[in-house]
Amino acid sequence: MPKPGNLATVAYWLVALAALGAAAAMLAFYTPTEQTMGPIQKIFYLHMPAAVNTLLCGAVVFVASLGFLWRRNLWWDDLASAAATVAVLLGLIVLATGMIWAHQAWGVWWTWSPRLTFTLILWLLYVVYVLVRPAIESRDRRALVCAVYGLVAFLDVPLVYLSARLIPQDIHPASIGLDGSMKLTLAVWFVPVTLIACGLVAARYRRNRRERIDEASRAGQGGAGMGG
Q1: Into how many domains does the chain fold?
Q2: Which of 139, 181, 198, 227 could form a cystine bridge with 73, CB 3.0-4.6 A?
Q3: Model-level pTM greater than 0.70?
Q4: In this structure, are residues 90 and 190 in contact, taking their beta carbons and an 8 Å threshold?
């Protein structure tokens, strides 16, 4: 018989996929086509929620890193690692959709505008975070190093958000004009993208906890690590 936790997880993902299907149908059959850019403009409805959730994952890494440094509980490290992994995935989606948008809007796949540059730097920072972790054998030292790094990496998050607003010559617009139906579509798209992002963080966190428990068990410690 399936465990209640497994049923809840399945139900969560069914809701997330249903929301994604509804958002895709809305985009295809309800949302008007933008006159200047044409159908390619609709990639914005994925790009924007993915970008916001990337920044939110960065904020989770920051809070979890602070939590570890304050309490020294390794579950904070597990959460930070999970959020950083999802930030890498979402950041890749943001960069890919942004390049498609740029090619259509500006005629180039990439330009070193402040916002694009800070976004690329942010993605690379979390890529390094994910790649460095396995290289540090000591779990406590790994958690400490990554917590400090997670705090430093977060400094780029406000730069990504503020760059187009504070630097007028940035080719990337600070905002995009949308009519009522377009705003509604954008709001709807935030639902599945956020659900998927949260679900991925939770799934990765559970995996990290299982791996830590297994690691402690193999070491003969009979627990999940320092402070639980």
Answers
A1: 1
A2: 227
A3: yes
A4: no
